[in-house]
Amino acid sequence: MSFGFTNPAYSFYERLLKREVLAGDVVGHVAIIQDGNRRYARQRGLSKILGHSLGANTSEMVADWCLELGIKHLTLYAFSTENFARDEMEKRYLFELIKNKFIELNNSEKIHGNRIRVRAIGRIEMLPADLQEEIGRTEAATRDYERMYLNVALAYGGQRELVDAAQALARQVKAGKIRAQDVNEDLIAMHLYPQDGMPVPKVDLIIRTGGETRTSNFLPWQANGNECAAYFCSPYWPDFRNIDFLRAIRVAQTRASSQ
Questions:
Q1: Quick check: is 35 catalytic?
Q2: What span, in angstroms and rounded, lies between the C-alpha atoms of 100 and 138?
């Protein structure tokens, strides 16, 4: 059965799910692989550009849903290192779209009113200079906030993150700043992205949309070390609904209660 957003049955089911989730334990960190923007557009005869724009709107809604449920950390996989292989026109549009979203975040009453800290994680130096500047402005403007953390993974690759952390630790050992035997899980975490003194915490739930059933090199240290729940669903990212999100949260809560 297909539920539309104005369908009374959908609204009832959504309220039922939300009550159930709110009655359970709060999920601390949700990470999402936002998959399917291009396939969504192709199936509807739309441009890839419009698909990405519609997907960005979904990202905003998910942040609102996290606020409603008291989720403290949300990490969105927005652009991977592999995405640099896409055609130049699509990349230019994506970078411009992401830059404009960071500008909106910086000027958002919702961000500042709810004290949401916005951070980019990944090899930010690989991004265009104007995008890097907007990221820096937004990060600086929200640096002192702590109610919720919105992490945007850009130019991100999980294996590369581990390599960068290992190299940073090796340099410190060579310089005599730390001893090799001092390296432990906490110290490694401090050298993962974004290396700002507040590491991305262990992940409780990874969501992937678009019908794929793999985690694509996303937060391997933070997710695998925590044996987090994984929720794979068929809707493309622009079609992702609140009931899909609530179902995913319920899966994470069920897993946590059974451990």
A1: yes
A2: 11
